[in-house]
Amino acid sequence: MLLLLKSNTVGDVFPYGTLHGDAALQEGDDETSKVLVLTKPMYFYEASFRNLYVATNGIISTQDLPMEKQYVDDGFPTDFPVIAPFLADLDTSGGQGEIYYRQTESPGILNRVASEVNQGFPDARFNPTHAFIATWDNVGAYEEASRHAGPSGKRNTFQAVLAYDETDTYALFLYPEDGLNFFGTRPKESYNVEIELPARVGFSRGEVSFFIFSRQEGPHYSVTSNEQSVKNLYQKGNAGVPGVWLFHIGNSFSFDNVIPAAAGSLLPTVHLFGHETHGQHPGLPQVQSYEDVPRTPGPPHHPPEGVAGPGEHSLSETRRLRPDGDVRGQSPEPEPAILEAYPHRVESSPPHAPDGHVVSVEEEVDFDSGGKEDISWPKFLGSPVLPRARLVGGTSGEKPSAVHLQGHSIIQYSTDNRETCQRFRQQCSHNADCADYSTGFCCHCRAGFFGNGRHCLPNGAPQRVNGKVSGTMMVGGTPVELNAVDLHAYIVVGDGRAYTAISEVPEPVGWALMPVAPIGGLFGWLFALQLPNSHNGFAVAGADFTRHADIIFHPGNQRLSIVQTAKGMSPENYLSVDTHIQGSVPFVPPDATVEMEPFKEVYQYYPSVVTSTSVHEFRVVSAESGAQSISYQLRQNITYRDCRHAPRAAPETQQLTVERVLAMYVREERILRYAITNRIGPVGGPELVNPCYSGSHECDTTAQCLPGEGQAYQCQCATGYGGDGRNCYDVDECAEGLSSCGSHSECENLQGSYRCRCEAGYELETASRLTTPPPLHTHTHTQVSSLQAISGRASLPHACPMCLFTLEPDVDECLSHPCHGHATCANTRGSFECHCQPGYYGNGFQCHPLTPTRRPESVCERWRASLIEHYGGQPDPRQYLPQCDTTGHFNPVQCYGDSSYCWCVDKDGREIPGTRSHDAVKPACLPTAAPHTVRPLPRPDVTPPPSGTVLLYAQGQQIGALPLNGTRMDKERSSVLLALHGSVVVGIDYDCRENRVYWTDLSGRTISRASLEKGAEAEVLINTDLNSVEGIAVDEARRRMFWVDSTLDKIETANLDGSNRQVLFNTDLVNPRPIVVDSSSGMLFWTDWNRESPKIERSTVEGHNRRVLVREGIGLPNALTYDPTTHQLCWADAGTKRLECISPDGTGRRVIHSNLNYPFSMVFYANHFYYTDWRRDGIISLSRSTSQFTDEYLPDQRSHLYGITVASPVC
């Protein structure tokens, strides 16, 4: 957003100068700043930009500027992107002023900009997260000495502010009074002709791509056209104040051209997020997602002289005023809604609320405690203008019972209807205190607990959420229904980690819902790690709320609606949330992965409503479609029951920082999982380095982290737990006599708590003695009307009132199936019992599959956490962080942030020499640890392939077999030849004489073989003095095998049974990988992909006559094979993307194909090359004769394929 300040004096511009953190541009006539990399990208027109440049000549650009003679004397449009508050030939040489600039996230700056924008664009609801300020202070015009006896001394001062969030950018230009003293400059090459070009003010997108190779002029918007229009810059404005000009200049979805603010000074728009209708539950207003409640326009107001008022044009002819007086047509915009109080009496009688108060069906009334619901006015919109309001009821000296404002009533309290703690204390949590105020009472959680007072949970304790997910979604045109499937969430409040699992999700929608992380994002907001002076969602909304979320995907325009309703706490103190999903989602291919970057969301807090709007981008990576970028806009509001009588504790805006988002669908288990790490704090607040705030502390998951000075902190076990804070355990209040259960009641221990249950034949005294029904607006789990019947007996968390005897006949509760689906029910006298079935654990009402215990943090994960803490919790994208896989091992390839500076590491994270690269192709690093084993395990013996010629390929923990039908790959008959769990099979070759396959295992550091006979088992040949053994080659004629070790930098040989082992070469090797042998000639060939000096070498099989065959024109020669028909050596290069061949004497080199993806290994058969490809995770065939791709095979199990060879029945 470019913001021109609403000010008419220099003192009112935004603060600037070096004391405010500004950088100063070097003085001169044609200077451009160094690139300023924005913290988050900014939209200008429809495009996203991360870099900004400030130039002497009164402009800001998103790219480095050309020389001034290419643009300074020309009008719009320009060839490059331009934001121009005053484009002219300016000069700061010799101390003629200063130019300052900075980017900022200061709440004061952002709030001020938000106020300007939301008044100029009443429907914007703009909440900027970042701003950029550039100030030209007292700058002069370029003047040639020959034309004047001396400089004129005229100086100009002006300022531009760009403010933006995830979707929109606004620009504000500020021209203070007396700030403009010259209005144009003379061209340098005017050949003594006295002409002056007026300054250009406006915006230009620059040239944009047209089709593939063409470019065309992009859109532009001019504010000035002559000298008078430049003078109007400080004499008029489009935001209601002279000298202030406001424009909407970018949007992430679609943006045709710049939109100026509405001329004149408009009253702010009132956005009531919902209204209650007669017959709906009074305690929870039914909010219509993002629908404005219709209003009647207010009385006309008078804008400043020379500025058009909103009533001067009809709605269909909405226009904007420019400084030169030209009125340009713009697209129609809705007239701003003005709040108006009717001065006349309202004749119709509104209906009655359940408690007898007179209300209107359109009003928004809080029946929470009989109190009033103010029409909430966000402070950043300014103060509403309320004309005469009619008071309804009441007499002199008393509070009115209602105020009518345009059909809306605001219920006021009188001394007769005020609710007090004495009457309604039971609405508060048993871990809360009740406090009386002048208009009613409120509940406040006690020390050691957090919540909204009606629901309080112990600080630091992990939380659980249970619920059901229902709805119908269209996935690629196919409707898929979810019928009350289970949702479970587990949240580690101490560091903001939220894990969500949805079970029994059918496959099409399981993949498609992976990007819809907002389903689990609700629980991240609810229990986010709280930074100082901040409140997570549960502290505001408690356990009774409704969340409406609307998602619009781009580019497909699919729309999805999510409604999540919290229904209080279960007897086990689990939050109950039901989710309903309706709409359509983009199709996501099976086995695809979804990558989502960290993001920030700004939440606005009003009485009873929380709102947020954001845009999220993600990448879908699949074998079928490659990588596809998709985005969606998320708009949400959360309605809850607010207590208005006490001062508001939550800030008006907060920022949710989501540091990690992971989503996966497990096909075998039909489970959709989300993992999200969240913390909530002030908008644009400083980064806090204390481990309590970064989540890098070592406190137990059931402990609260208490920050100290600097990096110091303490751990304190949550209420209901004992221990030192780093190791906590549940306290059994029942066994230790700490419960307060009364007579004829039983104490049942819970995690972090306990509950009291009346014995069979007894019920709670409160329930049996209650004669007055509770108010309709009350609902709490500690209240009699909402007590759960557990095991046939009334129960209550913590304190249990006296249990009284009853003479009710026994009822078989098992007939109503009260237990979990994986539990058995046993009826008893006056009660029943639930027990989880074998293979499940729980209390019978909730049963969960037994899962292995959580593994300890790995070295990689601990190192990563330590560096995150060292970087202050928010590493720069260019800083190094170890990349760990899902099992905690080091990823084989490591990079500096999101750069292309990468290298390979071993299983301990140590760098492998010679692997560093700094180009678009990352090094071909191999894993040294086997992936996690999925059970059940198939037999570890050979399943013979079909008869005929077969391709054998290595795929991590298995060797696959792919039959050939001629030269076509017979995909239908592909199979697993041998499952090798715990292995990383890389090199592979075949011995035709004995029908055996040989392979290298990077994880086990072994060389093994197996016969291709049914039931044959693997035989380990060599298991000593190996480290990173990769390529292997079998010499059928000499009955020898050869292999390379890329860590020990050796080439060795041995007999096929592993005997007579010898070292051929151990010098001048860095990263050897493939090795092949031509048995007929006795020649050995290998490549070394040393990133600093790759090469291809040859020697005899005895190790004689070693020489470099190819050194020039190669990059990452992974794959190597020998063509016996042409007697040439051929290689595939992942760096150059070429497949080439050469004769063993170094002659006849030629390119077969020049556009490969990422080849890893290759074999030649029947005039075809077959190679494994890491981009496609499959096998690709290519004809040598035609140089064309002929076939492709993508295994069902998607992962990298390594070595490949051919097993032919004919030797």
Automatic annotation (TrEMBL):
<dbReference type="InterPro" id="IPR000152">
    <property type="entry name" value="EGF-type_Asp/Asn_hydroxyl_site"/>
</dbReference>
<keyword id="KW-0245">EGF-like domain</keyword>
<keyword id="KW-0732">Signal</keyword>
<protein>
    <recommendedName>
        <fullName>Nidogen-2</fullName>
    </recommendedName>
</protein>
<dbReference type="Pfam" id="PF07645">
    <property type="entry name" value="EGF_CA"/>
</dbReference>
<dbReference type="InterPro" id="IPR036857">
    <property type="entry name" value="Thyroglobulin_1_sf"/>
</dbReference>
<keyword id="KW-0677">Repeat</keyword>
<dbReference type="InterPro" id="IPR006605">
    <property type="entry name" value="G2_nidogen/fibulin_G2F"/>
</dbReference>
<dbReference type="GO" id="GO:0017147">
    <property type="term" value="F:Wnt-protein binding"/>
</dbReference>
<dbReference type="InterPro" id="IPR009030">
    <property type="entry name" value="Growth_fac_rcpt_cys_sf"/>
</dbReference>
<dbReference type="InterPro" id="IPR000033">
    <property type="entry name" value="LDLR_classB_rpt"/>
</dbReference>
<feature type="repeat" description="LDL-receptor class B">
    <location>
        <begin position="1039"/>
        <end position="1081"/>
    </location>
</feature>
<dbReference type="GO" id="GO:0042813">
    <property type="term" value="F:Wnt receptor activity"/>
</dbReference>
<feature type="domain" description="EGF-like">
    <location>
        <begin position="417"/>
        <end position="457"/>
    </location>
</feature>
<dbReference type="InterPro" id="IPR050778">
    <property type="entry name" value="Cueball_EGF_LRP_Nidogen"/>
</dbReference>
<keyword id="KW-0106">Calcium</keyword>
<feature type="domain" description="NIDO">
    <location>
        <begin position="85"/>
        <end position="252"/>
    </location>
</feature>
<dbReference type="InterPro" id="IPR018097">
    <property type="entry name" value="EGF_Ca-bd_CS"/>
</dbReference>
<dbReference type="InterPro" id="IPR000716">
    <property type="entry name" value="Thyroglobulin_1"/>
</dbReference>
<feature type="region of interest" description="Disordered">
    <location>
        <begin position="277"/>
        <end position="335"/>
    </location>
</feature>
<feature type="repeat" description="LDL-receptor class B">
    <location>
        <begin position="995"/>
        <end position="1038"/>
    </location>
</feature>
<dbReference type="Pfam" id="PF06119">
    <property type="entry name" value="NIDO"/>
</dbReference>
<feature type="domain" description="EGF-like">
    <location>
        <begin position="730"/>
        <end position="768"/>
    </location>
</feature>
<dbReference type="Pfam" id="PF00058">
    <property type="entry name" value="Ldl_recept_b"/>
</dbReference>
<dbReference type="InterPro" id="IPR003886">
    <property type="entry name" value="NIDO_dom"/>
</dbReference>
<keyword id="KW-0964">Secreted</keyword>
<dbReference type="InterPro" id="IPR024731">
    <property type="entry name" value="NELL2-like_EGF"/>
</dbReference>
<dbReference type="GO" id="GO:0007160">
    <property type="term" value="P:cell-matrix adhesion"/>
</dbReference>
<dbReference type="GO" id="GO:0005604">
    <property type="term" value="C:basement membrane"/>
</dbReference>
<dbReference type="GO" id="GO:0005509">
    <property type="term" value="F:calcium ion binding"/>
</dbReference>
<keyword id="KW-0325">Glycoprotein</keyword>
<feature type="domain" description="EGF-like">
    <location>
        <begin position="688"/>
        <end position="729"/>
    </location>
</feature>
<feature type="domain" description="EGF-like">
    <location>
        <begin position="810"/>
        <end position="846"/>
    </location>
</feature>
<dbReference type="InterPro" id="IPR001881">
    <property type="entry name" value="EGF-like_Ca-bd_dom"/>
</dbReference>
<dbReference type="GO" id="GO:0060070">
    <property type="term" value="P:canonical Wnt signaling pathway"/>
</dbReference>
<dbReference type="InterPro" id="IPR000742">
    <property type="entry name" value="EGF"/>
</dbReference>
<feature type="compositionally biased region" description="Basic and acidic residues">
    <location>
        <begin position="314"/>
        <end position="327"/>
    </location>
</feature>
<dbReference type="InterPro" id="IPR009017">
    <property type="entry name" value="GFP"/>
</dbReference>
<keyword id="KW-0130">Cell adhesion</keyword>
<dbReference type="Pfam" id="PF07474">
    <property type="entry name" value="G2F"/>
</dbReference>
<feature type="domain" description="Thyroglobulin type-1">
    <location>
        <begin position="857"/>
        <end position="925"/>
    </location>
</feature>
<feature type="repeat" description="LDL-receptor class B">
    <location>
        <begin position="1082"/>
        <end position="1126"/>
    </location>
</feature>
